[in-house]
Amino acid sequence: MIATPALAGSCPAGKTAANPLTDAQTMPVGVTDDIVGSVDLQKELSFSDHDLRLRRLVVQPGGVVPLHSHAGRPALITVVSGDITEYRSTCSVGIDHPAGDVAMESDGISHWWRNNGSVPAVLLSADVKDRD
Question: Where do the Cupin type-2 domain residues begin and end (predicted)?
């Protein structure tokens, strides 16, 4: 039997609210971000200057994925191991993501992540990214 990952990219009930993220971290700390593979979407879908990419992020305890936006860059994040907390512009509290969770990121969302745990958090991120 194959386990279905939980979609935990949502804010807890009753906590949806505008969050100005005034305490957002803006610099990466203790995180590696490696591209595992990518697909040229021009060749596949005639969608010029964009790639579908898969990245592996390892966030050390206390590590930070800094504040960023998903305007024009949808993504799915799977927590492979460890735990990590997401601080999102649409939620008044941190969203905890244990191993197995999948977070959906879309236009209109700004957020940052911090590993508040004691072991590294390993994430897989699939996103559409315009070529710089």
Answer: 57-125
The domain segmentation of the chain, as residue ranges, is 26-130
* 59-107 pLDDT tens trace: 999 999 999 988 878 899 999 999 999 999 999 999 999 999 999 888 7
The pLDDT tens digits of the residues spanning 2-30 come to 444 445 557 888 999 999 999 999 999 99
Work out the burial of residue 83: count CB atoms within 10 Å of its CB; fewer than 13 is exposed, 13-18 middle, 19 or more buried.
middle
Asked if 124 and 76 touch (Cβ cutoff 8 Å), the reply is no
Write down the pTM of the prediction: 0.87
Please name which of 111, 105, 102 lies closest in space to residue 66, comparing C-alpha atoms. 111
Superfamily of domain covering 26-130:
Jelly Rolls (2.60.120.10)
